[in-house]
Model the fold of this input.
Amino acid sequence: MKRITGHLTEKNKKWYAVINLYDTEGKRKEKWQGLNLDANKGNKREAEHRLRQLLEQYNTDDLYKRENMSHADKERSRVAHMQVADYLPEWLESHKVNVSETTYEGYKLMIQSRMVPFFRECGDLKVKDITGDEINDYYIRIRNDGLKGTTAQRHHALLHLAFKSAVKRRIIPSNPVEQADRPKAQQYIGKYYNAGELKELLDKTANDPIHIVIFLAAYYGLRRSEVLGLKWSAVDFENKTVSVNHKVVQNDKGVVGMDVMKTKSSYRTLPLIPQVEEVLLAEKEKQEEMKRVMRRGYCKKYTDYICVDAIGELIKPNYVTDHFKVVLKEKGLKPVRFHDLRHSCASLLLANGVPMKMIQDWLGHSDMGTTANIYSHIDSESKKASAMAIGSALG
Done:
């Protein structure tokens, strides 16, 4: 690379440094740079001194290289020199178009509440300098703060995704998260109700405001968001089917309904179970009666939703979780999470000989591995069959 040269010139009674720069093909181009000095004899020596400093800087550091970078190279350099605490929120905004609103809100919470504060404490830790050591320190921090292994793995996946983007954009040569130790997690074995306990639950909550929510979750093993997102238009009483294609979530923007499901497999059409049909028809009649009684006082905004309260307002996800705990305590029932109704449904299917593949389709899991990992511990009937088989073979 040619050594950078330059000279002084006077313009509008000011001293300027004219720097001779060269592009990648060796073609010279001049760059004018003001020296903030009046053009008089008294300042000429100082102007010459500043010119020498500029030339020294151009010839000894990477300033000249930066001046001749393409726009893409400059952007890569900018991000590489960013602090990690600033990079993660910026990356998330650029990645927002690739994920659902629910996923985005979840990522945002992890980054703002945990990652940014931690990496701020690391001082001037830049994207180009981060290693697996700092990532491991972050995992230790969140585990010490009480986060479970499964949750820590979500943080691991998010960091991996963020720095994978930096590798893909050629900002950094390798992903530092791959140098870290992936957090380990103990498999969560959820509690579940047997058939008798589920019947007791449904009987004792018959007059509860969220009875319809509990009923649908127990029979179909739906996620909370899927139950609350069920619409009357998704129920085909003629062909006896129920379509799961909409969900309701709650975030910092409030309660939001959306047609974007968790995975492609979450979109599914299930048979309309006779007992469910009976309850749904009764619920529909009750809602029509409330419309007549309340008149203008009845909320018309959510008329297509099945799970609404007495005045037609959409039942909120957080209310379901909180109220469900209260109901179980008041009724003297075994404490479980609302999500454990999904586990209870799966356990009943397994106990009645339904193959794991069919349970996967029923629950809307994206792959068989997910279903097997979660419910293999309650597959008691198949274990009994295995025991009988080996006993018979060796007996």
User: Anything to note?
Assistant: The two ends are 85 Å apart (CA to CA). The longest strand covers residues 28-38.
